[in-house]
Amino acid sequence: MGNEQLEELRGQLDKVNDQLVELINERAKIAQEIGRVKSAQGLNRFDPVRERKMLDSIEANNEGPFETSTLQHIFKEIFKASLELQEDDHRKALLV
Amino acid sequence: MGNEQLEELRGQLDKVNDQLVELINERAKIAQEIGRVKSAQGLNRFDPVRERKMLDSIEANNEGPFETSTLQHIFKEIFKASLELQEDDHRKALLV
After folding, report:
1. Backbone CA torsion sign across B80, B26, A60, A36
2. Nearest-10 crossing angle of helices A48-61, B2-41
3. DSSP H/E element including A37
4. What is the DSSP secondary structure assignment for residue B83, as one 8-state letter?
5. How many CB pairs (< 8 A) connect A and B?
6. Which residue among A40, A67, A77, A84 is least packed, with the fewest CB closer than 10 Å?
7. Is there a contact between B27 and A13 (Cβ–Cβ < 8 Å)?
């Protein structure tokens, strides 16, 4: 019975993983769009004030079980990866 | 016009951030359940074979724009945080 329960929970986890992959990529697409708009306006892609606001919003929305600091750490990785994606796009645009 | 577009995109990003916070916490709850079932069965909470399978599944499901290695890096942070959560729960259970 324990093993069936474990398999059931792992199935649930796999579904959430799939949704996360999709949602993180959806976020990446929006970040790419933002990067394009900013490039067109000559704005800096890195915006620490906006990042701070997003981190504060995570704190406001967090109902657990993860600590806010844990979620913020994960999101900082996502921010960093998004910025790298925007920079790659920018370099590619320059090469066209 | 560019600023309106930027605000619209930022609004979209904020919504995705909220969904991500919710989904990452949903995943954490399932991981906590798995931790409890494993504790009850005397199983080790860290399972590198299962982690490998989840990382492979990310590769299979990734439609971009993020590179698979980027997503896997983000997920490894989530795995690590989940394991820490399971270990905290276990310590608390021992103290009861």
Report:
1. positive
2. 40
3. helix A2-41
4. H
5. 141
6. A40
7. yes
Summarize pLDDT for A5-31 with one digit per residue, the tens.
999 999 999 999 999 999 999 999 999
Predicted interface score ipTM higher than 0.90 = yes
A81: enclosing H helix or E strand: helix A68-95
- Please state the three-class secondary structure of B1-65 as a single string: CHHHHHHHHHHHHHHHHHHHHHHHHHHHHHHHHHHHHHHHHCCCCCCHHHHHHHHHHHHHHCCCC
Closest by Cβ to A25, choosing from B30, B57, B66: B66
pLDDT in tens, B21-35: 999 999 999 999 999
- Whether the CB-CB separation of A44 and A38 falls below 8 Å is answered with yes
Interface contact B70, partner A, CB < 8 A: yes
Token readout for B15 is: 């919504």
